[in-house]
């Protein structure tokens, strides 16, 4: 299974926040193991909101505690086509 566009975005955004190379982030590693605390979680949530131009709840990070799980949740909530159209715009 390949990495989705949304998963790539989340991986890049989180890597930037954590100041590490995005290729060092496994999409299945729990956020807690990556050191994502509540402050970084808020910043990550804002990055996602800015990208999606939609309201994003901090609680979604706790309910979907990895890049892959969060990407799948966001794909279901906002749609995959929506993400692809934003990238080509």
Description of the molecule:
By secondary structure, the protein is mainly α. The protein has a domain at 1-8 and 37-81. The protein has helices at 5-18, 38-52, 59-63, 67-78, 80-88. The protein is globular. The model is unreliable at 83-89 (pLDDT under 50). It comes from Tahibacter aquaticus. GO terms for molecular function: phosphopantetheine binding. Residues 1-78 form the Carrier domain.
Main traits of this protein?
disordered C terminus; mainly alpha; 0% strand; 89 residues
Task: Spell out the blueprint of helices and strands.
Elements: H1 5-18, H2 38-52, H3 59-63, H4 67-78, H5 80-88
Helix pairs in contact: 1-2, 1-4
